[in-house]
Automatic annotation (TrEMBL):
Residues 18-78 form the HTH tetR-type domain. It holds the Pfam family TetR_N. InterPro entries: Homeodomain-like_sf, HTH-type_TetR-like_transc_reg, HTH_TetR, Tet_transcr_reg_TetR-rel_C_sf, TetR_C. The keyword Transcription regulation applies. It comes from Nonomuraea purpurea. Gene3D superfamilies: Homeodomain-like, Tetracycline Repressor, domain 2. Keywords: DNA-binding, Transcription, Transcription regulation. It comes from the Bacteria. The keyword DNA-binding applies. This is TetR/AcrR family transcriptional regulator. Residues 41-60 bind DNA.
Amino acid sequence: MGQLSRLAGTVRPGGRTARVRAAVLEATQDELVEHGFHGLTMDQVAARAGVGKTTVYRRWGSRAGLVVDLMNELANQSMPHADTGGIEGDLRANALSVLGALTDGRLGATFQAVVAAATCDEQAAEALRAFHLRRLEEWVGVVDLAVKRGELPEGTHAAEMIRAISAPLYYRLVVTREPVTPAVAERSVVRTLAAARAGAFVEPVE
């Protein structure tokens, strides 16, 4: 997961529709950061984006619809997986990417707001799941390559290994509210890699 603190740079040449979407998504993120999901209103997003309320209601339908589109855009703009030539370097790059996103004042607040929303809104939960599945799909290849290079055991479950890297970071951000630091990210990499080399992520044969 890479860093994206502003959506303005995502506007592509091609007309008003792209500009409107970028303005609305940036306004949505601003409102999430400042007021959380429950303080997010369609009218305020429209006013902040300088877009007619009718346009926002017609295109996005609800605040959950805004969050779904925002998370989709964040996934689109996240950095691709690393290719350092070795699994340790690749996993460290993944951990630092997650760390950078979670400690960014704007992105970290965005994720906290969406995680909170996901506990009570199914559309928000689906948006969060889709975001993380997109990021998992991007990074599982580094584990598969490591297996082919003989760095990890055959049958290593790539997605579970990538999840294990980021899980302690999200736990601190959302549950215990402890600092998410480079040392935490490094320990997550070291422990996950040691477990993987010991076969902890190998899928059992049924």
